[in-house]
Amino acid sequence: MSEQGRPLNKRAIYERRRAARALAGASHDELAELWDAWENRPEVTYLRGPEAGLVMVQGRIGGTGDRFNLGEATVTRATVMLHGCGLDDGASGTSYILGSHPGHAGLAAVFDALLAVPAQHDRVLAEVIEPLERRQAERDAAAHSDARSTVVDFFTVSREHE
Amino acid sequence: MYVAVKGGEKAIANAHALLAKRGRGTADSPRIGYEQVRDQMGVLVSRVMAEGSLYDPDLAAKALLQAQGDVLEAVTLLRSYRTTLPRFGITPAVDTAGLPSERRVSATFKDIPGGQQLGATFDYTHRLLVDELETTDVPPPDVPVDEPMPRVAALLGVDALIESDRPAEGWTDPDPGDLTREPTVFPMTRAERLQALSRGDEGFLLSLGYSTQRGFGNNHPFVGEVRVGEVEVEFEVPEIGHAMPIGRIEVTECEMVNQFVGSADVAPQFTRGYGLVFGRAERKAMSMSLVDRALRRDEFGERSVSPAQDEEFVIAHSDNVQATGFVEHLKLPHYVDFQAELVLIRKLRREFQERQATRESAAHDSTREDTNRLEENA
Question: Out of the domains of life, which is the source (chain A) (predicted)?
């Protein structure tokens, strides 16, 4: 299932990856809330899924050496087509999200599709992606702060009679 | 030979009902939600994901509840489930130094950039059983938050005191074999061994790692570095045409540093054993890195004298789904099989008794002759 009409320039790739990261890191409830708040919701048709599958996750020996297969992870993917609300030609979007949450993958595909609509692009970034990024940054900062509070300063006790 | 049996449907259905009843406990106590298992028994959930070779904390928690806490049963549920799903593809290798670690300690260097960060650890707890669990707030840190944490192996690598994890030139980043798709053939590549070890039984690997420390193997290990933290997973989506972030997974990584005295061609330097495991699994990652190093004996021309150095012994017995399947099948009906054994044993006993009788009567005869002879002589 190939997508047509979506640019593959650096900026478009960067933005789509950024949006995917924010959408994957959010919870289904967060996305559902944002979609409920979206004005003029277009009609959503599922071209594929949401369907469950796997990816084989690879690591590297020693962190930077040869690759090896670490194990599989569940993934849910969806491809949607949006119609109505000024989308004359429709707009398609795709999502792949770790885990087994069809609703999450479905809504992520919807926002991915809206991101590709020039008239909706800025609104998706401002009303969906940026708030999600801020929340993720807050969660990360809190977790990182907790982790840094456990930094220990060991000191070596020098041996006597040496 | 195993001969199948038929029948017993009713008793089997009743046994399953009884199993469900045992798992429920008293009816007036609330059922445990899978979210509680996922969040409050995270280490156990990690183990099920690692040995089930499937990262999904929700499903692992559900499997544990269904299995009533039987880890191997839960692992088997995950393994069975994964066979029902299509594989969309293979991810680019995760960058284990990519996101800030929750935990990062080194036993080789005290002062490392980024510091020794204990994270959520059972180390240094008092190991005293308490009646009620309580949680306290974690105070804010009094050290800089944004400090980079370079790999400890990279610090040793500067003076070539430790082996490099890839050849200096001519490295092709080879595609690893996949044990879930190809038959197991010995000898394996190190990459294939690591796949098997990462999904191997924690207890088995722990014991093997322990055996190398006690002298059954040629190790003198130090924990160069242990890290626990989240890494981002990406996936090259064919229909999109480039890699997309698809979420994060938690992993535990261990780099074990081992002595190597060198050979005619190679200068003495430290060598490495590597462990990488899904979830919070420090004991497993450490054991894995010990066994990984022991199994590299051919690379360093070490004599193979111990079980932990025997690739086929280790890999063929590390998978607990296979192990429990073969051990536990012994309790299934073997009636026909056993009938044959019974007939054989009865026949052998009959023959034994006949021989015994012949021998006794011969001995009796000879005793009588001896007695007669004695009497004559007297």
Answer: Bacteria
